Amino acid sequence: MIKQTETARLPLSRRQILKGIAAAGAAGVAGLPAWGAAAAEVRELIVLTGTTPWLPAYQKAAAAYEAEKGVKITFRPFPYGGMRTQMTNATQSRNAAFDIFQLDEPWTGQFYDNGWIKPIDEIIEGYALDPNILTYDNLPLWDRQQRLGVTGGQVMGLPINGNVDLFVYRKDIYDKLGLQAPRTWDEAIENGKKAVEAGEVRYGYVTRGQPTTGGQSVSYEFMHVLYGFGADWFTVDDGSLVPAINSEAAKAAATTFRRLLELGPSRPQTVGQADCIALMQSGQALQGHFVAAGMPQLEDESRSSVVGKCGYAVVPAGSLGKPVPASGVWSLCVPAGQVPERQRAAAEFIVWMLEKKQQEVFAGAGGIPTRKDIDVSGAGALRPIMEGARDSAPLARGSIRYVFAAQMLEAVEPVIGQIGSGEVEVAAALDGLQAKLAEIAKASGFAK
């Protein structure tokens, strides 16, 4: 059974972040071999990671490894926008700066397809995925021929943080106004309007409307609505991907997403994940949806004015009639170009991190566990968040994971951001995006 720890209340300071970046940038990583060179016995692993809300939980869980195995774990944290660039540069320049990569879900297709990741089941002979590890729509399992994740594929990496979006709402205001927890996005919108009209909050709804580069941001929040309307980016026809983002269902989803953002700050294209968390913490917002890993901050007594006042649930449903969350899972992987000794040491650490004991520590510190057998009953104030993530996992569909995800997101992020901010007309914007996706899929060999 997990127990809540103080780590969930210790986000990284700016000084800590900058210190980590500087350490990684100063003359590379001292003591590591050149790409492909011989390696001595491994006593330290250099782990690329992100300045994510759940990094303290990751560090907490990993802290016992040195005492237990005699191998020091040194984290090199980078802002989200720089992580993929760091890993790509290290790979293409044959610079063995890192022993472990941390891949956001949209990056997996590119890294796996390019052969930049060494499969764990090739490093550790006979390794089989623990059946208690969640696979999130086959995220870790890669088929080289089909160029996608499938049941029975090779184990490429392991999911370390099981992010999905949750719906969070102010229970106290809901009770005061006699509102019911929404089952649909339309009901959430109506509840938001009522709370604003009653003068209880400034904003009726918050979620990310800010586009990003190098990954997914606003498009990820949009996917929880898109999938709930039964829509998707593509359909499959005779083995080819056919863009479907201008379907009637997708247009309805995009219109609903805009209506959600209209209940938030006047310039939604400037609202990022940290802003959503801050608006909920300060009591300015009634409700919203964002990643589960960010929600423990709402229960931080040193920073939040809404401790104990929030409810957490699976995201609402669209016209499909059932909620369909999008997974936003982070995976730990081994760079293909590292020397065998370091690959083996890295793979052993990754497997260790996914064991039940470490996942319990991780969850107790605010991370979202990726195992089915974690008892969250002792998580204290974090228990409803962990239960919401647990209940969402079997409903979740994969987010953008295509081999061409990087090119796709460059097209998708700004358009969804413009739709959310009201800068463009929905149908015309989606028609334009449809054409762009057709070009990208064809250029990557996935469409005729």
UniProtKB/TrEMBL annotation:
InterPro entries per the UniProt record, alphabetical: Bact_solute-bd_prot1 (IPR050490), SBP (IPR006059), TAT_signal (IPR006311), TAT_signal_bac_arc (IPR019546)
Originating species: Aquamicrobium defluvii
Name of protein: ABC transporter substrate-binding protein
SUPFAM superfamilies, sorted: Periplasmic binding protein-like II
CDD domains: PBP2_TMBP_like
Entry superkingdom: Bacteria
Subcellular localization, as worded in the UniProt entry: Periplasm
PANTHER family in the cross-refs: ARABINOSE-BINDING PROTEIN-RELATED (PTHR43649), DIACETYLCHITOBIOSE BINDING PROTEIN DASA (PTHR43649:SF12)
A Gene Ontology term for the protein's cellular component: periplasmic space
